[in-house]
Amino acid sequence: MDPTIARQSVVLLIEADPEAAGASQALIEGLGAVCHSVGTIEDARWVLRQNVPDAIVVDHDLPDGAGIDLIGQLRQSPQHRDTPIILLASRVHPQELERAVMLGMYAWLAKPFAPAELTALVSAAITEDRVRR
User: Fold this and answer.
1) Domain containing 55 — which CATH number?
2) Which residue in 107, 112, 108 sits closest to 125, CA to CA?
3) Which domain covers residue 63, as residue numbers?
4) pTM above 0.90, yes or no
5) Number of domains making up the chain
6) Tens digit of each residue's pLDDT (9 = 90 or more) over 79-103
């Protein structure tokens, strides 16, 4: 990925597990992107009022709701309708995955994942967002 693009990029990471969030944030920042990391949907909504990220990485299981529900809400917002969203999940029912796809999920990444898998997906999502704009 072109580092000049990544340095300008903003990624919102929504992950409740502090250890997983720290590791994922380090990987995303390693791409040169700014990473806003939060642990709840409520905190994510606050960040989204202040920022229009180039990509969103959201865990399926959050303390105040499901990541899939947030995808549906974001797709109704003109500011975030086309933002690539990567869903992280350790266990997801196939019907939930189908719903996430129908709502416009960019990609799904099964937990635990290899660091290279996350960085490849985030990098591709940022690039796609930049090309679309």
Assistant:
1) 3.40.50.2300
2) 107
3) 3-132
4) yes
5) 1
6) 999 999 999 998 888 899 899 999 9
